[in-house]
Amino acid sequence: MAFQLTAEQEAIRDAVREFGENEITPVAREHDEEKKYPADLRKKAAQYDLVAPTIEEEYGGAGMSLLEGIIVTEELWRADPGIGSAIGSAGFGTSMIQKFGDEWMKEEWLPAVAAGDAVSCSCISEPAHGSNVAGIETTAEKDGDDYVINGNKMWITNGTVADVGVVMAKTTPDAGRKGISAILVPTDTEGFEPSKIDNKLGIRASDLAEITLDDVRVPQENLIGEEDKGFYQLMNFFAGGRASVASQAVGAAQGALDAAIEYAGERDQFGQKIGEFQAIQHKLAEMATKVEAARSLTYRAAGYAAEGDRELGMKYASMAKLFASERSVEVADDAIQVFGGSGYVSDYPVERFYRDARITKIYEGTSEIQKNIIADRLL
Predict the structure, then answer these.
(1) What is the pTM of this model?
(2) Pairing relationship of beta strands 146-157 and 208-219 according to DSSP bridges
């Protein structure tokens, strides 16, 4: 049975693609080379409901489904992964607030993020704990009516530009995953100190930071959901998050493929366009097949995740992330080969897609972690 998007979903794709081609692509190289965060483009994207599009309408969002949000992400990354990441990540942590936060949290932060007036971040990974979320060492100790948070967070997207963070910390330090809580922390709180990481291989327009939490004091009312249930709350978003990264990979691969097809129709060698050589035609055919296979698996994963079946959602999201990220790097590599020497320099976008696609094999769980998850659900 063929999978088809609805007319409304196709309209969303068309709108994001138009925004990407008109607003993002022309400045993509500049933002990459200057490692410049696109605050102006983020705010403009918010006017088109492209920032945190799954925030509910009652809180100022577009109320899109997970699949529709994934379409938005895919098209933003097709235009440029770096700027696409900056726009697409501006609402990191808002899903936790929306599902488990108190009403005052939703009213204060969700409309601001959706409107492009504020940026959020999700503070999970640490210098010694990336894939092993249960092993985090950041602590949040009660002191009167407050939590006092101490620790270090690493690889935090939006770390230096965010207005608020969802910080995962141990409220019961010796309880492993059973002792983790999610706490809302405005980034102007004393002791919240981000340090920018700007020596990245790719997605250079996206902000990244290490964060030191030194006696950060926030009221206990800033607890999101239940104390010591943060890890289990976070599990609600693993499948959707991994499907979203898969869509990033699909977008990067599609962008690289588009560039290769265009170049093959323009470049002359031996008296003809290189796209007329069967060797190039076969390469493009294989690239296109990989992109479509990755896209189909990603959309299927989004469907299972949206249905709320945790086991199927986790299995297919891990499959999608594994397959799409690995194929994305392959497709971008093949695009460079189509360009030849021109693909190895920044005059054309394919070297950027190659660098940018590589991160999708790492964050939200490495390819090796995804294989473990898949195998656990097979055996």
Answers:
(1) 0.96
(2) antiparallel
pLDDT tens, N- to C-terminus, the chain (379 residues): 457 899 999 999 999 999 999 999 999 999 999 999 999 999 999 999 999 999 999 999 999 999 999 999 999 999 999 999 999 999 999 999 999 999 999 999 999 999 999 999 999 999 999 888 889 999 999 999 999 999 999 999 999 999 999 999 999 999 999 999 999 999 999 999 999 999 999 999 999 999 999 999 999 999 999 999 999 999 999 999 999 999 999 999 999 999 999 999 999 999 999 999 999 999 999 999 999 999 999 999 999 999 888 889 999 999 999 999 999 999 999 999 999 999 999 999 999 999 999 999 999 999 999 999 999 999 8
Q: Is 68 a catalytic residue?
A: no
* Alpha carbon distance 88, 32 (integer Å): 16
Q: Which of 107, 108, 364, 368 is flagged as catalytic?
A: 364
Angle at 312 between CA 307 and CA 314, to 5 degrees: 100
Nearest CA-CA partner of 206 in 216, 217, 194, 196: 196
* Tally of CA atoms within 13 A in the half-sphere of 17 that contains its CB: 11
What is the four-CA torsion angle of 5, 359, 369, 336, rounded to 10 degrees?
80
Let me know: does 51 contact 114? Beta carbons within 8 Å.
yes
Strands 146-157 and 192-196: unpaired
- Is residue 294 within 8 A of residue 282, CB to CB? The reply is no
**Is there a contact between 116 and 86 (Cβ–Cβ < 8 Å)?**
no
DSSP symbol at 61: S
Count of beta carbons in the 10 Å neighbourhood of residue 10? 12
**Residue 217: its H or E element:** strand 208-219
d(CA 231, CA 150): 18
**Residue 97 neighbours by CB under 8 Å, 6+ apart:** 105, 106, 109, 110, 120, 166, 184, 224
The answer to whether residues 360 and 206 touch, using CB atoms and an 8 Å cutoff, is no
C-alpha–C-alpha distance, residues 211 and 155, integer Å: 9
Q: Read off the tokens for 212.
A: 């030191």
Cβ partners under 8 Å of residue 245, min gap 6:
321, 324, 325, 360, 363, 364
